[in-house]
Every structure is written in C-alpha cells, then in structure tokens.
Specification:
Layout lengths: L10 E4 L7 H4 L6 E4 L4 H4 L2 H8 L5 E4 L8 H14 L3 E6 L1 H13 L7 H5 L13 E5 L11 E6 L4 E6 L7 E4 L9 H19 L7 H23 L4 H14 L13 H13 L3 H15 L1 H16 L6 H18 L16 H12 L12 H10 L2
Parallel strand pairs: 1-8, 2-3, 2-4, 4-5, 5-8
Antiparallel strand pairs: 6-7
C-alpha cells in the first residue's frame, strides 16, 4: 500500500429537510454571496428553502454559473466580492456551481493573474488566502461537495482545466436527497455515470496490496449498477435517491485514492470533448472509458478481470476472457444508463478530434498519462479514433 495522508474537514450534513440548518452553519455578521446556476433552484423550491433559513442575513446574489463553469463568468463574481467586501460564499447547485465557487474563492485574494491558477494547475493550500464557502447540493454527480478539486472552462481558448488544494474544501455541505425529484432524467443519468467513472479512475489500474480500498470501490460500483437505472425512473424513491447521492459523494471525497495508484486519463481526454463540442461531461466519459480500457488492455487486464468477477459476476477460462467480458458489461451498463458511447452519436464534426487533442496534450507537455504514465500521445490518438 502506498503512503498517504487523509484530510477532509467538510461537515457533511445529509438527509431530508437539512437545508433549514443553514441558519446555524452560515457565519453571522458576514456579507454572503449566494451563487447559483441557471435558475432551477427557483423551480424546485430550493431557493425558497435557502432564503427561509437565512432571515436577516446580508445576501448578494450571483446567478448564471454555467454547466462547465466559465472563467469569464466567474471573474465577474470575483469583482463583486472584492467591491462589496463579501466574506462568505454559499454555492447552491450541482458540481458546476460548486466548482465555480472554488475558483471564485481562490481567485479573490490571488496575487497575480487568476488564470494562472488554471494554466499552472496551482495547489491552493493557505486558508487565509481564500474566501470560505459552503454548499447546498442540488445534483449528485461530481463529489465536489466533499472534495477540494475543481474543473473550469476557459471560453477564449476552449480549454477545460483542473486545479484544487487543501484550502478549497467546503466548510459544510448540505445534501438532501429529495432535491433530485425534479431533475430531468438526463441529469440523473449523467450523475450516476460520472460517479461510476470517478470510482473507475481510482480503481481500474493494476493489482496492488490495498485490499480494503478495492472492496470499498467495488461496493460503490455494485451499488450504482444496482440502483442506477431505477433511480432515473423513480427519483422520488427515497432509498434510491439517498444511496445515489451518498455514492456520488463517496466516489470522489478523497477516500478511494488513499494508498493506491490512480488513472484519470479518461477524464483528461473527456474534458477536451466537452471543451470542443459541449458534450455533457459524463457522456464524454462513457465515450472514452471503455476504449481506454481496450487500448490499455495489457496493463489493465488483471484489474479488469477482478472488476468483472466482483462487480458483474463474470466467469471465464482466462484473465483475458474475464477482462474482455468486464468491458462488455461496462458498455452494457452505460447503455442502460442512456449513454451513447460513440463520439459520432454525440456530434457531427468529429473527424479531426484525435489530431486536435493530441496536439493540445503535446503543447502542455502531457506525454504520459495514467497510473503508469504509459498513455502516450500515440495511445491517446488510438483511444480517440476508436471512439469515433
């Protein structure tokens, strides 16, 4: 097992009617920025619950944070915080809003060009140099409610870049499973697949000695396979909704990656598809993931076979046979979740995609991705072209 440190200071407040606890969680005598997205919180009643829990608080609202939050939009919020001496941010939304607020939090006091936070993938560690924030989760998917990572899109350059740091954990996150009742099916489908792939990025590497980590990862995968299709059709079922929300958090709250190798190449390639074509993040993962497993089969087949046996119950006469069946079962699950797993099914203009992504990665010096840094530009090309 690899050496590790486990640090997660987020106060995770789970369950029905917990939004009322904002009264005690949000700091008093502090000006608050209430940040949200496209306005769904007005339709599903969450906005009213938030406002009812914060009577007498000095609140400035900032709406319009996009799916795949834009640097250009977030800098407007940074300006407001600086101008109005705001001391706390409340993110009410899904992963995009929360990711956006993490960038806002880091950028307000940043000494220099805030774009460097993204371009240089800086680690933000000094809590005195960020604006503290909490969250009210409205869409389980990214796990951003209990981690310190963020992914931001720069419109100008069509880039989707990640950053983070220990200073960017939410102070608290309120997670009420009933919020999914009003979500469109597509968003729930995306959320399940996003969570599933987060686990796979930390699990589907090579066999190692961290036995408990494998079992925890497999339990989340099994749960998502069991409940995923059902929660899409029955979002008012509290058992399904609760387990879905908790799985999405557990998939990326920092626990699974402790002591183990991790991959993340699927995400790096997928981010480019979103930046290029505005394909939903989870759908890019469904396009790329299975083909990455195929191209990197020789180094992943041992773990693929274990995954197939433990998560899907596959059987076979060899490691290779079980590993191949595991990929097939994964694609079947993605199809059950409503994913279209070919790039050509998601966009018409895909012919030069591999060239563009490979050039981007080479410009950034990304010459070896994955748990063994063996996902070379040539492998990236093969994976993307196989995904057409």
């Amino acid at each position: 097992m690899l050496n590790f440190e486990l640090y997660n200071p987020t106060n995770y407040v789970f369950g029905k009617d917990q939004i009322a606890k904002l009264t005690d969680l949000v700091p008093k005598n502090t000006k608050i920025l209430l940040a949200y997205g496209g306005g769904s919180i007005f339709k599903n009643g969450v906005y009213n619950q938030v406002k009812a829990a914060l009577p007498g608080f000095d609140i400035v609202e900032f709406g319009g944070i996009e799916p795949n939050p834009r640097y250009e939009t977030l800098m407007k919020a940074v300006a407001i915080i600086r101008e109005q001496n705001i001391g706390f941010i409340l993110a009410v939304g899904g992963g995009s809003v929360i990711d956006g607020v993490k960038f806002i939090s880091a950028a307000v006091k940043f000494d220099g060009n805030p774009m460097d936070i993204l371009k240089k993938r800086l680690l933000i560690k000094d809590v005195s140099q960020v604006i503290p924030f909490g969250t009210v989760l409205t869409l389980p998917a990214t796990g951003s409610e209990m981690n310190s990572g963020s992914v931001i899109t720069i419109d100008e350059t069509q880039e989707k870049l990640a950053f983070g740091g220990s200073a960017l954990f939410p102070k608290f996150s309120i997670c009420d499973p009933t919020v999914i009742e009003s979500l469109p099916k597509r968003q729930i489908q995306n959320g399940v697949v996003d969570a599933f792939t987060h686990v796979m990025e930390q699990y589907l590497t090579y066999t190692h000695d961290a036995l408990l980590q494998d079992r925890i990862a497999e339990s989340i995968l099994q749960t998502l396979v069991e409940i995923g299709p059902s929660v899409v059709e029955n979002p008012t079922d509290h058992k399904l909704a609760s387990n879905y929300m908790w799985c999405a958090t557990m998939a990326l709250n920092g626990l699974l990656n402790k002591g183990v190798p991790t991959d993340w190449a699927t995400h790096m390639i997928g981010h480019e598809l979103t930046a290029l074509y505005e394909i939903d993040h989870a759908r890019t993962l469904a396009i790329i993931g299975p083909n990455l497993y195929r191209v990197m089969f020789d180094t992943k087949k041992g773990k693929l076979a274990q995954y197939g046996e433990r998560v899907f119950g596959v059987q076979g006469n060899s490691v290779e046979e079980k590993a191949e069946k595991a990929i097939e079962k994964t694609v079947d699950f993605l199809h059950k979740m409503g994913m279209l797993t070919k790039l050509s099914e998601n966009t018409a203009n895909y012919e030069n995609t591999a060239d563009f992504i490979v050039a981007r990665f080479e410009e950034r010096g990304w010459r070896g991705l994955g748990e063994q840094q063996n996902v070379t530009p040539e492998k990236v090309r093969e994976i993307v072209e196989m995904s057409y």
